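Model it.
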Amino acid sequence: MRLVQEYTQDIEHRFKYAYIAVLILFFVVAARLYYLQVIRGNFYHFFSTENSIKAIRVPAVRGMIFDRRGQVLVDNRPSFNIVVIPQYVIDPERMIVSMSQLLAMPRADIEAVWEKRKLQPSYQPLVIDKDASMDKVALIRSHKNPWYDKDDPFDLRGVDVEVRYDRTYPESNIATHVLGYVREIDPARLDEEKEKNPGLYHIGDMIGIRGIEEEWDKELRGQDGYEEHVVDAVGREVDYEGIASQLVQHSAEAGHSLRLTLDRDLQEMARDMFGDRKGGAVAIDPRDGAILALYSSPSYDLNRLAGSDGAAYWNQISSSPEKYLLNRAIQGGYPPGSTFKTVTATAALSEDAVKPDEHVSCGGALVYGGRPYHCWAKGGHGPIDIHRAIVSSCDVFFYNMGLRLGVDRIAKYANLLGLGHKTGIPLGGERDGLIPTSEWKQKRFGVPWQKGEDLSISVGQGYDVVTPVQNALLAAHIANGGKELKLHLVEEAYDVNANQTYKWTAPEEKRIAIDPKVLEIVKSGMVGVVSEPGGTGHRLSAYKVSMGGKTGTAQVIQLDGNAVCRSEVCKDHAWFIGFSPAEGEAEIAMAVVVEHGGFGAAAAAPIVGAMMQRYHDIVHGTDAGDASKERSALDLWKSVAGESAGEESDR
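Modeled.
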């Protein structure tokens, strides 16, 4: 018993410390409650019933896009949207009438926007007037009173002016299909992105559509910031002592800017030279696969698409029979015509179907199966070797090669050179094209391949379908001796502090499975097309820069007997593929197709020649980038095109 008492006495003195601690805690809590409920009670009661904290998003500035020499392709400009936030609208009827009067907008248009509130959270702004003029912004600002009075002529409770950044383009139609555009994310895309990138995209965000804007959207878009503000029940911002210091602000982070491989001057030249004609142009650096130019005609106006009438303009171009949205450079499929003779020549030399010095007789036609297959030169070319066959584009020579090789061996080398399948260019929607085989025809039509079809295939007709980017890659592979290329459009990216965040690196060098000596023979023939008298592209020798190439005229329809078709859609497609310079290491390889342009030598070849001359002036000229150089190249183009017009050429 005594032991228990001693133990109790030993710990009793410790309890008083616990009592003191509990009392101190009690007084702290009581004091805090007194401060909150008595001293600041009216404030917090008012704040909880009449006010709320609203996080206002601060939009990030989207990254800029430059060409390979630092010239601006895409910039940003501030714009103003007049919006209404349903959460703070007290009298919808008065708000609609007020907006209709101030903005001179039909009531029905505002009502249509107001109906969208049912499909989204009430705090989400509804855009009444996108990219509004400064006059309209001033009207809203001047009539929106900080404190609403029932005697005010306009009820603008819930109406606000939102600052955004819209894309702007110094040259709005030179690289439309490469750049793409931005627009507000739609519900279907938002659901898709929520699964792939949770938390990255929200209702009302702008997102890249098509082209570089879509492929690099995450890097370009940046990170939106936000600012917390105290607003009252009608959306007015209020300032109350002691709250401002507790509000959170997070600065927006601008998106990364991109430097592309495209050259703005080449894009401008392509636009000017195509004019109203349809078609596509692609230029590649055969040393590393950089896309130097990629133009599709007709193009459309990105500035107009980003402007206030963008929705109406979109409806116009998306429904037009001109197919403005089709990127013909990577999605247009065309028979390659005589540009394909470079493939047949490569296959014939590689498979020992012909020797470099062997001569084949051309009398103007080859009779097979009782039917004459004519050469474009009615009188024929006489005995001709493979070099001169390429230079003068002798059909009969290549008909013979087609019979010796057969479709499957021709297809093998077409595929190796980049035809009949996607090139891997980093743009969405690229087309495969088609290089037929005997197996393909059996599966597709259920009938065997006919030997007579080898004649058409050998000269790029029949089932052959290629895209301009594939034909440009074909020219690049011949020009560089068979080095495989990985096509790319973005050279590097930088953050707002000029720190490099991306740099394109070339993959390990590989070569296609074709003897470089064979490709050198074909390349020599292409040089002769331009440099030798009688070459189908000899007019291009007027340019100061040396080049090699191959003309092509692809039949669109086959006319029988004396049938005549004078319609534009009956004219042949005009092709030209080429590279420059002719000697040493090639620096640029190109393909141009002009839909229904007629002969390749007259319509397509001068475009390639002018663009190659312009490229040479930029890279090697003393006045690189000088506008006078561009005018000189254009003037020479017009001269060459004029001299070539009306001349009969190869198919």
